[in-house]
Amino acid sequence: MNKTVTFRIWRGDATGGKFVDYTTEITEGLVVLDVIHKIQATQANDLAVRWNCKAGKCGSCSAEVNGMPKLMCMTRMDTLDTSKPITVEPMRAFPSIRDLATDVSWNFRVKTKIKKFNPRKPDCEDGTWRMQQQDVDRVQEFRKCIECFLCQDVCHVLRDHHKHDEFIGPRFLVYTAALEMHPLDTENRLAELKQAQGIGFCNITKCCTKGCPEHITITDNAIIPLKERVVDEYYDPLGWLWKKIRPQG
Amino acid sequence: MATNYETHEYDVLVIGAGGAGLRAAIEASAAGVKVGLICKSLLGKAHTVMAEGGMAAAMGNVDDRDSWKVHFADTMRGGQYVNNWRMAELHAKEAPARVHELEAWGAVFDRTKEGKISQRNFGGHRYPRLAHVGDRTGLELIRTLQDHGIHQGISVHMEYTIVSLLKDGDRVVGAFGYDRERGRFRIFKAKAVVVCTGGLGRAYAVTSNSWEGTGDGVSLAYHAGAELLDMEFIQFHPTGMIWPPSVKGILVTESVRGEGGVLRNKDGKRFMYDDVPDNYKSQTSTDPEEGWRYTQNDKNAKRPPELLTRDHVARCINREVKAGRGSPHGGVFLDISWIKEKIPNSAEHIKRKLPSMYHQFMQLANLDITKEPMEVGPTTHYAMGGIRVNGDTQATNVPGLFAAGECAAGLHGANRLGGNSLSDLIVFGKRAGEYAAKYAKENAAGSISDAQVEAAYREAMEPFERPAGGGTEGPYQVQYDLQNMMQANVGIVRLQNEMEFALAGIEKLKARAAKVAVQGHLEYNPGWHTAIDLKHLLTISEAITLCSLDRKESRGGHFREDFPNKDPEAQKYNSVICKQADGAMKLRREPIPAIREDLKQVIEEMK
Q1: Interface contact B104-A146, CB threshold 8 A
Q2: Is it the case that residue A249 has pLDDT exceeding 60?
Q3: I need a surface site. Which of B96, B212, B414, B584 has the fewest CB within 10 A?
Q4: Within chain A, which residue ranges are assigned CATH 3.10.20.30?
Q5: Angstrom distance (rounded) from CA B312 to CA B415
Q6: Among residues of chain A, what percentage have pLDDT more than 90?
């Protein structure tokens, strides 16, 4: 069942680059990352690529395969048309380091600016809390995130409009939603969401949800409820009136 | 010359940012010292994310008969009594507090009906003990520590590799390494260094470990004078994926069996019933119906034989395959889909309990585990051995050097119980951070000679200076050859002459590694990084082989076909490796200190 495939891989760095074709033989049952590794071991020892777990759990090997946002370790070769060259290029929403590795450090800086988890006092004398499973189901969905940053890569606010200084992107809206909806959390993050974190930039095209390898319903379950909370807090005229006239202190 | 390198100064430098490293960094920084944290990859990507089943802590939330004593006795039994008993005691006593602490930092564990942290059954644990989040507990652990740690003032260096520890006389006072992104070398000065570099599975061809698991910390510590302990004990996890080839070695969590999954050979027989070790007979069911009830939390039922310790299950699978009763791709069948006979809507149940496994098989093998059995076989998973440490402080025999997590040894003895690794990371990560911070407060910074920095730099750069051709080769072929040799000769079943062959082979590979040449640039050059890792892989392979040759018995993760039984005399010592002045590796047997009387009684009570 061996067959020959051509990979058209972007080679270059921050100063520029180009696609280079590599032709190699593959066996049955491989994923894109296997073929990249084979090319790396036999034809291009210095081909830069990030990867770790090779099981879709660490979110390191994000790339654009035939233009689609993918984890290379979870993209089976038998799902691709091998009669044509397969293009593999780095995530385009982030600066290039080299070849398939991009500089994703912006994401790590953004996270430090989001207020950390701040739990209520323990429910029991032994310092523990009680929570029902149904109350944590939603937060657990968000906490499945493997931080592959593919949602950031496909978000047009970041990718096309480069609003990295004004908008935290879907990953960190999910992160904020996980904190805001955590049954124990007492912090309020709505003011930043509206201002510095730019939740209003999201116009719900749902590209992030479609691309999420963990199948997190990013837009519907995380971003829209956060938008509603921001609207309730800042744009609800009855709420605004109530805040003006309610008894103070 | 050394003054040209950018230098970072810390009180405590933590090398490795998995569960143990992050926990150590958090603890040291909470003690008020300046902390640097080195990640080989990006923050939050360390191999801890792969841990699936859970973390063992005797909280008694699901079965109130559980206590630290039962957990201690289970850990010692699993480790076949060559464990560091002090570590096993501290681990059993402190794990519950460490788990509760994670909840206070934002971890969201699965819940019991009363709203407590839920706990699940796992191999070798008498009661349901593993706090878990579906089958992605490791991700929850690392993300919780990461998200807490980034607000603690820790300086994080992502995608850095340490090539050498730096010393001032006998004491470790820093580390030297490069960043992957640009290949720039850096000096990290530190009053104390904590090594938390995880595993070494990449010494084998079939492994659940990622590219990072090259035993760096064990090798760095060894070359800096630290003693290694019990390197012969390698855990081969019984259930790795075996098909398709691209996923060979990737883990299939033990939770599949904990939730009722059964192992069958090609004739459909549950072969695990054929061989139950004597010391587990009283705890193991003989009736499949009772085994099923155990997995459904019937407190009066005994566990099914699929949940015996990992070393035993792995060998039984190996036996079935060798006897020609294996599955088409050389493993056996692991079936969870059969529970449809027991549970209405079982497909939904399986997807909820084992979401990652469902996803992993659906996407990588195009197989629906709710409908069909999986094909599985043993995979190199975990090193019980590693750097020898003090059980209380995690200090090594080298002043200023500490170690915690998988790269440290002692807690697990000859075989680790599933779930005892994540709890190991948080219990001993904390202790390492605490005592490293204490050491840093009590000792001034050391001085680092230019000469040793230059020597480390030259060694790292040598592969570029060897011209291609003329007897040189690329690093990958040397790595493959080592992995295949270790797999074939120092693997799950071991023989004297095969291991002697491997030992000689390691010498030949060392000679080849000394001639490896790489091309290209310093920036993100994986060929170069592989060339540097070869030294570590060869060091640990030699240590594993030496210890395995010396232990002429079978115990836990060390199984010798020529000595298939346990030797009571061999239960009295640990294997200790150190580097001699002439650079040669030396092995000695060291008596295990007598166990404290009260702990001995605990073990007797729990028999």
Answers
A1: no
A2: no
A3: B584
A4: 3-102
A5: 10
A6: 87
Stretch B309-318: mean pLDDT: 91
pLDDT tens for each residue of A203-237? 999 999 999 999 999 999 999 999 999 999 888 88
Lowest mean pLDDT among A99-103, A243-247, B359-363: A243-247
Q: How far is A49 from chain B (nearest CA, A)?
A: 8
The band of B358, judged by pLDDT with boundaries at 50, 70 and 90, is: very high
Q: Within chain B, how many helices (H) and strands (E) appear?
A: 16, 18
* Count of A-B CB contacts under 8 Å: 163
CATH number (3.10.20.310, 1.10.1060.10, 3.50.50.60, 1.20.1290.10) of A105-238 reads 1.10.1060.10
The CATH number corresponding to A3-102 among 1.20.58.60, 3.60.110.10, 3.10.20.30, 2.60.40.420 equals 3.10.20.30
Portion of chain B with pLDDT greater than 90, in percent: 88
Nearest beta carbon to residue B527 from set A45, A58, A144: A45
Q: Best residue in B253, B524, B532 to probe A by mutation, most A CBs within 10 Å? A: B524
B214 and B273 assigned to the same domain = no
For residue B373, tell me if it sits in a domain. Answer: yes
Render pLDDT for B390-410 as a digit per residue (tens, 0 to 9). 999 999 999 999 999 999 999
> How far apart, in whole angstroms, are the C-alpha atoms of residue B108 and residue B106?
6
For residue A196 the two structure tokens come to 């510095």
- Identify whether the C-beta of residue A55 lies closer than 8 Å to the C-beta of residue B357: no
Beta bridge partner(s), residue B241? B376
Rounded to the nearest angstrom, the minimum Cα separation between A91 and chain B is 16
Q: Which residues of A touch B116 (CB under 8 A)?
A: 128, 130
State ipTM. Answer: 0.95
Considering only CA atoms, which of B574, B164, B586 is closest in space to residue B410?
B574
